[in-house]
Amino acid sequence: MKTKLYAVLAVSVLMTSVALAHGDKKHVIGTLEKINADSVVVKTAAGKSVEVKLVASTMYVSHAGNEDKPAKVTDLAVGYRVVIHATPKGETLEANEVKFSAPTASAAAAKPKS
Amino acid sequence: MPRAGLRLLRSLTYKSVMSRGNAIFLVVVVVIVLIAVGAASILHNGLSAHANPTALEIMLARNARHLAIPANARKLQNPVAETQENLRDARLHFADHCAICHANDGSGDTMMGHNLYPKPPDMRKEETPNLADGELFWIIENGVRFTGMPAFGGEHGSQQDSWKLVRFIRHLPQLTDEERMEMERNNPKGPGDREEEQEENDFLGGAPIQQKPEGEHHH
């Protein structure tokens, strides 16, 4: 009987437990430092390297001359400027959208020396 | 009847009464424990909209929604043709009125969507496509009680717009990147969002990087 009661208690606790959801998007802005098979590393203005996972649903948008065009992951290159809208998933960030542009000559010239 | 037989009959009846008694006792204990744990959980954690509904709540809510839609509404046929023009009207309408909760792609992956209770469904998946045109139309026009879904019907011309939206909901799984980007340009934005978007576009256009706390910001 005791065993039954413990089992009932355990099941009841499991049934009433709830998972909390958190859905804030994060924007990661900087230059592409590294492109891996399933992630990119972005160097932010603060000099921090942030890794963002690329998933099947990640959208790619090329920005040139104030115009946005759909793009592909293969269009990305190291040194490109990126604005990534990502969803935190545990300790990692998962990219919803990667918007990028090739560095302009003036921007390259204005790049701060490290 | 021999005494031994009588004794056996009494013993069997006693056992069956006892086992029925045990079963009733167990059910009562389960109910009391569930109520106690539920009450303790509510008292301790409250009833936050952050939580995900349990399977039981989802089942009850879906059945309640099914019952709330009149049988004749389900049989209605969409009078709006599936033309590029109608789909575009609906796309822009959806971007302006619906995407704040449902997201442009119908996934429900928005800040509002994540924090509603219940969460809006992923409209590209089984549950929504399985609804009849008439059911989708009725939901748009009348909303769903005890959820974040308002009733959009009642305004002049709204029925035509709602039927166009039904067409667009059916199109969601085939939404192209170009269509999604067009919708993004038509999403309602506050001054903060517009400023943020402008800063991001300026940065992509070659402007110096704006340093934000921790190099990231969010909304």
Explain the overall architecture.
The complex is a heterodimer of chains A (114) and B (219). Chain A has 114 residues and is of the alpha+beta class. Chain A has helices at residues 2-16, 105-109; strands at 26-35, 39-44, 49-53, 59-64, 67-71, 81-89, 92-101. Chain B starts with a helix and ends with a strand. Chain B has helices at 3-45, 55-68, 71-74, 84-97, 99-102, 111-115, 133-142, 158-171, 177-186, 191-204; one strand at residues 216-218. Chain B has 219 residues and is an all-alpha fold. Chains A and B meet through helix 1, strand 1, strand 4, strand 6 and strand 7 of A and helix 1, helix 6, helix 9, helix 10 and strand 1 of B. Strand 1 (26-35) of chain A pairs antiparallel with strand 1 of chain B.
User: In total, how many beta strands of chain B?
Assistant: 1
Through-space gap between termini of chain A: 72 Å
- How many beta-strand runs of chain A? 7
Looking at the structure, what is the overall shape of chain B? elongated
Q: Rg of chain A, please?
A: 21 Å
What's the helix count of chain A? 2
* Topology order of chain B in helix (H) and strand (E) letters: HHHHHHHHHHE
Indicate the mean pLDDT of chain A. 79
